[in-house]
Amino acid sequence: QVQLVESGGGLVQAGGSLRLSCAASGRTFSSYVMGWFRQAPGKERERVATISRGGGSTNYADSVKGRFTISRDNAKNTVYLQMNGLKPEDTAVYYCAGSTTGLTYRYWGQGTQVTVSS
After folding, report:
1. In the prediction, which pLDDT does 99 show?
2. 10 touches 20 (CB < 8 A)
3. Facing residues of 31 across strands?
């Protein structure tokens, strides 16, 4: 089992950048596929980016390709989401999540708010 705590959210102007961090507890972090998800008010949760256990494979939603970068440091039990060129439509609560299978994400953080002003 892994516990996840996100940080790094905040208010930023359009075009700005933020880096989200997700710290994981436990000694088996490297065995989890990790992902970042987001949910805006009145909208369904959206998968933003995922990263493989070793970090060698990543996937992104079309809406963030070229602007966001997911990475992980298994020695620090942390996954990151670097967000550049932020747009007002990126405003949402961002969650990190862990999966043992890469299909179903069972472990979730509490979320961090990202607000992009126009």
Report:
1. 96
2. no
3. none
* 63: Cα separation from own chain's centroid: 14
Residue with tokens 């298994």: 74
Tokens 């670097």 locate to 82
Q: Tokens 């999966």 identify what position?
A: 99
Q: Decide: residue 114, CB within 10 A, 0-12 exposed, 13-18 middle, 19+ buried.
A: buried
- Chain segment 25-66, per-residue pLDDT in tens: 977 999 999 999 999 999 999 999 999 999 999 999 999 999
Report strand pairing: 112-117 vs 10-13.
parallel
What percent of the chain clears pLDDT 70, i.e. is strictly above it?
A: 100
The size of the chain, in residues, is: 118
